[in-house]
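[recover] target loaded
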């Protein structure tokens, strides 16, 4: 086989050092099932909770036997990170697929390592990843870009005093939502109805990040849209999450599994078109590439569409919202993986002239 015929080597990164470690292992198992072994060579690389990079020998064996588990294993042979993502044969194209959720995976840290390794990778670059991971800074940029956002207050863990509690009551009113600024999957998110609940919610949120975001509660439906692309992104149909809990929390997402998705969402076409346009504006303003899921609240009686956040590496089981949105738009799960690989290679090649020393 000549160099030109070498299959693309996909390095599948999963696990990670955040509270979303186990979510990543499940997503990665589904991605691995969807990758066409005739088109790609796959190297599963686990990142353990303590930060070690391992070649998952159990996953390699399971891949060979065709008997993949529901969640990928995170034990195996130690690897040096930059060596793990290097080509194994001269002239071979490598694409890193980081199925990592949360800090130290989705926040620009791993993306920075991949930039230093000069390797193609799926998803946003360093700035887009970091910016969208930090909910407080993302809101500043979104507001500057003219997107409708909920009122919010950001605070550091050294600022959680009575003055902050009084400010929340005066500026936002009750109830409010409290979130770690840098976390996903609704980890550490709580609703506070009064000052006592606010203090408890702040204490929990700061277990996950030193910065917190306190938001006014928006009474509305939770709508989401998928975006694919680099310089010319496109939007999927609109979907809706219907939670069974008071809000779409971690248990509703991953423990009870009782929330439902409605695709396409039952909204007027004019609302769906407006949401897609706003999502594309957010995608560009917040420096996204490759893929993202853009989330909104929809209050039909008062506020209309309100931008919530961008998830740059959304859940990736075939039943997660992002792949489901694209399946409903005409791009099945295996073809979605192919498109993400194509976009990663295209972006890497486009950026090469800008990497050269002058």
């Amino acid at each position: 086989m000549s160099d030109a015929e070498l299959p693309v080597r996909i390095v599948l990164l999963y696990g990670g050092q955040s509270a979303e470690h186990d979510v990543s292992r499940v997503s990665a198992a589904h991605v691995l099932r969807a990758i066409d072994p005739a088109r790609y060579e796959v190297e599963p690389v686990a990142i353990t909770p303590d930060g070690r990079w391992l070649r998952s020998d159990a996953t390699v064996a399971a891949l060979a036997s065709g008997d993949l588990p529901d969640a990928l294993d995170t034990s195996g042979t130690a690897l040096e990170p930059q060596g793990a993502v290097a080509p194994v044969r001269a002239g071979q194209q490598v694409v890193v697929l980081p199925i990592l959720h949360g800090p130290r995976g989705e926040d620009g840290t791993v993306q920075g390592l991949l930039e230093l390794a000069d390797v193609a990778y799926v998803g946003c670059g360093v700035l887009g990843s970091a910016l969208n991971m930090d909910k407080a800074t993302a809101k500043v940029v979104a507001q500057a870009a003219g997107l409708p956002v909920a009122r919010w207050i950001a605070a550091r863990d050294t600022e959680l005093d009575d003055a902050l509690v009084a400010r929340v009551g005066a500026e936002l009113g009750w109830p409010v939502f409290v979130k770690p600024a840098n976390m996903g999957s609704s980890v550490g998110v709580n609703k506070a109805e009064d000052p006592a609940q606010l203090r408890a919610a702040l204490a929990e949120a700061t277990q996950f990040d030193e910065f917190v975001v306190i938001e006014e509660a928006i009474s509305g439906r939770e709508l989401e849209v998928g975006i694919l692309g680099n310089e010319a992104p496109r939007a999927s149909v609109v979907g809706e999450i219907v939670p069974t809990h008071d809000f779409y929390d971690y248990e509703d997402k991953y423990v009870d599994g009782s929330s439902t998705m409605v695709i396409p969402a039952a909204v007027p076409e004019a609302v769906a078109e407006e949401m897609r346009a706003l999502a594309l504006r957010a995608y560009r303003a917040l420096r996204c590439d490759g893929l993202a899921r853009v989330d909104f609240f929809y209050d039909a009686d008062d506020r209309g569409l309100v931008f919530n956040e961008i998830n740059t590496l959304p859940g990736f089981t075939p039943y997660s919202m992002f792949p489901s949105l694209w399946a409903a738009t005409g791009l099945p799960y295996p073809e979605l993986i192919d498109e993400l690989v194509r976009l990663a290679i295209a972006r890497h090649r486009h950026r090469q002239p800008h990497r050269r020393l002058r």
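[recover] notes: The first helix runs from residue 21 to 34.
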